[in-house]
Design brief:
- Belongs to the short-chain dehydrogenases/reductases (SDR) family.
- This is NAD(P)-binding protein.
- InterPro entries: NAD(P)-bd_dom_sf, SDR_fam.
- Keywords: NADP, Oxidoreductase.
- Strands 3-2-1-4-5-6-7-8 form an 8-stranded mixed sheet, with helices on both faces.
- The protein is built from 9 helices and 8 strands.
- By secondary structure, it is an alpha/beta fold.
Length: 316
């Protein structure tokens, strides 16, 4: 558990020293944003489009994605492209990744933004994994594995490509590290951990995977891909739709910030020239370097989780 002061700063960060106006020209670059149809994802797509980037908006719902694309075109004058992506199903993730690769010779920015928070406890993925682990961590892990060769091929000594993992301060609330692997599938112990515990676990795992990927990328002398993981802050988005109404209202009045602020950290990670030096680094609100949960840095546990995820996707 983080200290009171750490959490206070997360709830009420100082004003950002960075603005989306500082995003460089992205003409000729290609970005893929998961969960791009709402909230932080949609706002991220907007700013990337404004700067000339070719943006693929990945979402599960075609109708919601098309509405978001129409909204973005009205705001920016530019049109995002739709990629159907269901992170709940590993087979579907593979199909989406293959479709993306067939239509794109390059990928410069991959922003793993989509997520679920405290859904009904009975919900699991198509392969039987806890839904929050499956969508927030495993689904993105598989997407990265499928697109990493393209990210590597796109990178060179003068221009890095970037993978941005959107985690959360929820990692600091994960009470019982290391991860109990029984809680990753539909077991009695998973249900005992509860919806909130499963959410904090999924974000703790996201950070571990982001750190370990950065280590592997740093060891690869033949490419220039970087992995950055971050906490966007406490933001008022649809992610909290499963909270009771009175809880959601209370949070909105007290600790939640607008999407315009929440988008800062992932845009900075994805586009800032300075952030090109941040492979393996953790960013906190708003676009500042920070430190993750200390136990996410356990290399043995990172590798154990990495190998578990590799085994989970091997038949897909």
């Amino acid at each position: 558990m983080a200290s009171f002061w750490t959490l206070f700063k997360q709830f009420f960060p100082p004003a950002s020293k960075w603005s989306p106006d500082e995003i460089p020209d992205l003409t000729g670059k290609v970005a893929l944003v998961t969960g791009g149809n709402v909230g932080l994802g949609k706002e991220t797509c907007k700013h990337l489009l404004i700067k000339g980037c070719t943006v693929w908006l990945a979402a599960r719902s075609k109708s919601k994605a098309e509405q978001a694309i129409a909204d973005l075109k009205k705001e920016t004058g530019k049109e995002a492209l739709f990629l159907e992506l269901d992170l709940n199903d590993l087979k579907a993730v593979k199909e989406s990744a293959e479709k993306f690769k067939s239509q794109n010779p390059a990928l410069h920015i991959l922003i793993c933004n989509a997520g679920v928070m405290v859904p009904p406890i009975e919900q699991v993925t198509a392969q039987g994994y806890d839904l929050q682990f499956g969508v927030n961590a495993l689904g993105h892990f598989f997407l990265i594995q499928k697109l990493l060769p393209l990210l590597k091929a796109t990178s060179n000594s003068l221009a890095e490509t970037r993978i941005v993992w959107v985690a959360s301060s929820a990692q600091f609330y994960f009470k019982n590290p290391p991860v109990d692997y029984e809680n990753l599938t539909d077991t009695p112990s998973r249900k005992k951990l509860g919806k909130q515990g499963l959410y904090t676990q999924s974000k703790f795992i996201t950070v571990m995977l982001g750190i370990y990927l950065a280590k592997l990328l740093a060891e690869d002398q033949n490419s220039n891909v970087i992995s950055i993981y971050l906490d966007p802050g406490n933001i008022q988005t649809e992610l909290g739709r499963n909270f009771p109404p009175f809880v959601a209202t209370l949070m909105a009045w007290t600790i939640l910030h607008p999407v315009s602020k929440g988008v800062l950290t992932q845009l900075y990670a994805a586009t800032s020239p300075e952030a090109a030096q941040y492979n393996g680094k953790y960013l906190r609100p708003w676009a500042r370097l920070g430190e993750p949960h200390p136990q996410t840095k356990d290399e043995a546990e990172q590798k154990k989780m990495w190998d578990y995820c590799l085994a989970a996707i091997k038949d897909y």
